[in-house]
Amino acid sequence: MIFDRDIRHRVAVPTPTLPRPTVGAVAVNRARWGDLAAVSRLQRRAFRPALAYGFGTLIVLRALPNVRFLVARRGGAVIGCAIGDRHDGQTRVINVAVDPDARRRGVATALLRALERELPRGDLLLMVEVENLGAQALYRAEGYLPVGSAADYYGRGRGGIWMQKGRDGADDAPPKLRV
Ligand SMILES: CC(C)(COP(=O)(O)OP(=O)(O)OC[C@H]1O[C@@H](n2cnc3c(N)ncnc32)[C@H](O)[C@@H]1OP(=O)(O)O)[C@@H](O)C(=O)NCCC(=O)NCCS
């Protein structure tokens, strides 16, 4: 995930088609305003307090036109989210979270793939904590490779790894990495 302090300087992108429902009984769709309280609870369950996006940040992200904000639902309950954007010519995955009770069933994979469809332009960039080996395994499985590091990104002694996924036929110039 990318810290909310780094989410700024928005640019407009065209409205893409809605993602397709996926993963059996799990549906992935754009977040509705009424989902945000559940996503806020999900953030607190998925991340330690310093990393969980608060309700205010989620409202801002939901409102911004260049942000794509998806949720995974099972039986009507929000069990995951994925948020990405286009920022200064770069496509970014800025947050992926799955409820602890719903992990290792392909939910994050479905969310990530749907988010990539929602953000079809350019290569993809994300940040993951050095010690978050599970998320790194997910991203590697989906074609992301490490391209840089940032010491103390997540706090003193908690480094981050930039991971990137190139996409064939991307209609942009090579991404401008800020690592
Ligand atoms: C990381 C996270 C999003 C993965 O969600 P998930 O729905 O369990 O992921 P998936 O089921 O789609 O996993 C797909 C593959 O990724 C890898 N993977 C996912 N979680 C893993 C883990 N904890 N350990 C090792 N590999 C893991 C596996 O290869 C997995 O395939 P498999 O289950 O067939 O072995 C989830 O654990 C989470 O929300 N963690 C806390 C928040 C977080 O770290 N977000 C990412 C921030 S960068």
From TrEMBL:
Keywords: Acyltransferase, Transferase. This is N-acetyltransferase domain-containing protein. SUPFAM superfamilies: Acyl-CoA N-acyltransferases (Nat). The lineage of its organism: Bacteria, Pseudomonadati, Thermomicrobiota, Thermomicrobia, Thermomicrobiales. One of its GO terms (molecular function) is acyltransferase activity, transferring groups other than amino-acyl groups. Gene3D superfamilies: 3.40.630.30. Residues 26-168 form the N-acetyltransferase domain. Pfam families: Acetyltransf_1.
